[in-house]
Design brief:
Elements lengths: L9 H11 L4 H8 L3 H15 L4 H10 L3 E3 L36 H17 L7 E6 L4 E5 L5 E5 L3 E3 L11 E5 L2 E5 L2 E2 L2 E2 L3 E5 L4 E4 L13 E3 L2 E5 L12 E5 L4 E5 L10 E5 L2 E8 L4 E9 L4 E5 L10 E5 L2 E5 L11 E4 L12 E3 L11 E5 L2 E5 L10 E5 L4 E5 L11 E5 L2 E5 L11 E5 L2 E6 L2 E3 L4
Antiparallel strand pairs: 1-32, 2-31, 3-4, 5-30, 6-7, 7-10, 8-9, 10-11, 12-13, 13-14, 14-15, 16-17, 17-18, 18-19, 20-21, 21-22, 22-23, 24-25, 25-26, 26-27, 28-29, 29-30
Helix pairs in contact: 1-3, 1-4, 2-3
Amino acid sequence: MIEEPSPLSEREMEIVRLVATGASNRQIARDLYISVNTVKVHLRNIFGKLELNSRTEVAMYAVSQGWVTVGDGQEPGEPDEDAPEEVATEEVAPAPAPATASRRRPLFVAAAAAVGLLLVGLLGGTVVSGVIPLLVAGPTPLPSPLANGATVTALASRWRARAPLSEPRTGLALAVVGGQFYAVGGETADGVVGAVTRYDPQSDTWADQAAKPTPVVDVEAAVLGGRIYVPGGRLGTGAVTDRVEVYDPERDRWAAVAPLPAPRSAYALVAFEGRLYLFGGWDGLRFVADTYGYDPARDAWEELTPMPTARGYAGAAVADGKVFVVGGYDGEHDLAINQEYAPSKDNGAGSVSWTTRAPLPQGRGGAGVVAVADQIHVIGGGWDAGLVRSVKYNVHQDRWEEFEPFTTGIWRNMGVGASDTRIYGVGGWDGRSPVATNSEYQALYVIIIPVAITPVPNP
């Protein structure tokens, strides 16, 4: 095999070789004595230069280019349990076909076969040991025998009900720290609360934590440095507050930091590259387009370039190293807006930091918005009527597609969060009252492909 010149820097090549062994970002950071964030920046550059979308594609490309060789001399490293970093392959909707045993063949079978063929070709049929973890978004196969001995594949629901909240709540925030979910504030049948409950997915149990000093509803939460930030919110009196309170899960303790530049509730919030970004919301009189940024090192907020459209009850998520603000409600209509925000381009004086992307298939206010493996999942929502269909956004293709809904009724203003390959939707509103729902969605599956890859030393 002729080794082609690499478009990558020496450091990027080091990272590619480690990725090819199955090393996680954390392992790569340790081996190269750099930070995990630096590894992520290099990976984004590698994906861009090679025009690839996942770690698995990078590994296979490196093999095909002769940058690494396949053999049985090295075992790949075990991935960190709390840091799944592979990017999922796309779930492709099947074309119409007769109902046969081969219809809707799971995507991971094709993916595994393709990898297997490539490796067998490289090795001349030699079987090797080791693993490459591959995350896939295909359906779960459930073989069912027929009378004639043939089998068909049924699709299991990827949603399942988990232990509900002890009390129904809507307009709450949900944050994830160390694989634990923290439900903060919200409104019950008796009014606005500051309740904080921690959910452990392993034991499927909830535990009460120190209550938020200021009870609020219509809030979001974001995590910086292992602490949960909850800005603003609507008080039990109906007034909107500018107070920002921060929860330390290790100490089970709350503290106040610098207030918002102005009172806000029903905003969208995201943590990105060590800062908080808050978008739009309700100021007590109207929905606004304001964008605020928070620097924890200075404990200071600043006003940034506003969104092109005033809205509240939108969702924000980070995918492919970019910030997206999706959907919302303007007081009269659900909005289908999907806009990308680039903090690095924001000088506060122009709109160059905002880019319009493919809109939602339908307007959605109060939806749950969360990213898993660079795909943005939008669940529920719909202010005037519930939207049954769930949709997800493929950042690389700028395209939306449907996925399995959880309910056939109204579900909005829930808290949403993701850990590993699973999404959780907690609480919310069913059109009549708050709910105690805790629903888990299996967004991705992990398939292990047997292979060992040995890096090629630099010439």
